[in-house]
Amino acid sequence: MSDVRRLFVEGATDAVGFLGGALIGFGIGHLLGFDIFSEGYDTRSILGIALVGLGGGFGLNIARRWRMARAHAAASPGNTGK
Fold this sequence. Notes:
Blueprint: H1 3-31, H2 43-75
């Protein structure tokens, strides 16, 4: 795989993982009644923002683990290239 393609795949999967995780964190926060867009920085707003950040970090971590697992599977002996 060329360097440009590899870097594009790396950036795209990181972005999708982070955004997906952040949206899931936002959804969980919304279900729990945490409004990240409320006026001021009250406790519920801070907890909602923290859930978005944690979700984004978790999603990014999952995306990187998925990418590493695919790279490991592609490099393993006996791989048919499919």
